[in-house]
């Protein structure tokens, strides 16, 4: 079984548990904290994947980090993962859980890359527009790029909406070249 399938099974099991016990919001918040902590700590990810570090020490480390910060159900789940020798997959499991949560809540993640920072008004207009396009709530992340020249690019899952100046210039160039050949 592939690692993605394994992560998906554990994430689905946690999702079912959270929904059945009516603690979905609490577990979602806990798992988001675990994900953000692991994402920001490469050392923790490496330690959990290390075959040299004993599982007992990994469990002790995770307990020290999260015990006072997350619910007992979420902590029990982390302990279960370690006891099943899947601690190397914990990051992928919590990431998969968050994706399942977003799908359940009708949230889609979108990334906006722009040439300059967007104003709050521009962000709100884009949010409304993309919520209308996708039919879902949109959670944006923003970044800047010097390669765009002007405008922006929005990536929603596998779809790219390119409203950059560079793209518009490329389209104009193609159109002019096409018309130039047809005029001869």
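^ structure tokens above, recovered residues below v
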């Amino acid at each position: 079984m592939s690692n993605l399938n394994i992560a998906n099974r554990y994430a689905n099991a946690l999702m079912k548990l959270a929904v059945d016990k009516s603690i979905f919001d609490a577990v979602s918040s806990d798992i988001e904290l675990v994900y953000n902590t692991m994402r920001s700590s490469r050392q923790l990810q490496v330690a959990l994947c290390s075959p040299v570090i004993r599982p007992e020490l990994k469990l002790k480390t995770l307990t020290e980090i999260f015990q006072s910060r997350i619910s007992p159900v979420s902590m029990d789940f982390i302990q279960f993962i370690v006891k099943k020798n899947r601690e190397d997959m914990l990051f992928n499991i919590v990431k998969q859980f968050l994706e399942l949560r977003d799908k359940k809540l009708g949230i889609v993640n979108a990334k906006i890359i722009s040439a300059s920072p967007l104003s709050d008004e521009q962000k709100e207009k884009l949010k409304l527009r993309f919520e209308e396009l996708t039919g879902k709530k949109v959670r944006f992340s923003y970044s800047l790029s010097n390669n765009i020249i002007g405008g922006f690019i929005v990536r929603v899952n596998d779809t790219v909406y390119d409203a950059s100046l560079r793209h518009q210039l490329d389209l104009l160039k193609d159109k002019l070249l096409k018309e130039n050949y047809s005029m001869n």
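The CA atoms of residues 113 and 143 lie 5 Å apart.
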